[in-house]
Specification:
Strand content: 35-45%
CATH architecture of one domain: Roll
Structural class: mainly beta
CATH class of one domain: Mainly Beta
CATH superfamily of one domain: Electron Transport, Fmn-binding Protein, Chain A
Helix content: 10-25%
Order of helices and strands: HEEEEEHEHEEEEEE
Distance between the termini: 32 Å
Strand order of the largest sheet: 3-2-6-9-10-5-4
Low-confidence stretches: none
Mean pLDDT: 90
Number of strands: 12
Amino acid sequence: MSGWRTFDGEDGDPRDLRDAFGSFATGVTVVTCRDAEGVPHGLTANSFTSLSLDPPLLIVCPAKVTTSADPLTSADHFAVNVLRTEQRPASITFSTPAGDRFGKTQWEEGAGGAPLLTGSLAHFECARHAVHDGGDHWILVGRVLRARFEEGPDPLLYYRGRYRRLHFDD
């Protein structure tokens, strides 16, 4: 088939696997917490999904190499901020390792002190339920304590290595 690329298991090129995963459009989130000293931490993540309605659980998967991975996996509480189209700058800010991420972004305190980014499409305030090894990522399971969302604004999307927008042919 013309145009098809293939990843062949452990002998395959990791770039091919990454590009294949990129064929699935995702929303963009910023996952936040405070460490034991009260310092806020956060990172951009698109590996986020619902897990269960009863009990209310979600999953987010931070890369182990990020500076926020340890604070996120050890915090009692964390928040998932689902970004809207206009929050692309926040997505970029929280995906870079340097600088004062929270000084560049407006936020308020949520459950257990986890930062909630102002203007987000949705907030999921969570208690840490479990942490599992997921290869080069952690699988962080959160018990949803509160979810707030706004109907209407478009989500920030990521597809094939680029930010995208919704468009419908109604």
